[in-house]
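[job 0417] fold request received: DUF6482 family protein
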Amino acid sequence: MEFNDLKAFVAHHDNFEIRVIGHAGSHVYQVELEDVEGTRHMLTRAGKPVLFRTLEDVYLELNRAGIHRAYLVQHVPHDEVIGREAHYRDPLTARMPLVF
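[job 0417] inference complete; emitting structure tokens
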């Protein structure tokens, strides 16, 4: 989803979830929107995924789109390595609410 599309989507919908996705050992973040149907959309520019170096950069970009809440999801490879299913959607265990 392009940034301009994100702004338009936020202006017309109120039932969606924004996730800021980080990976263990990396200082790069991606932003994902999940709509009411469960479809996931990565934030893109010119068709390429947008990567952020800091959470502050994420906050500024989401604020420009009119978004003030998101979830920080930290992917840790430990679960996949030992063969356990990762549970990133479980509340309060794998994600942290962000308000900015």
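[job 0417] notes: The CA atoms of residues 4 and 100 lie 20 Å apart. DSSP finds three helices and seven strands in the chain.
[job 0417] exit 0
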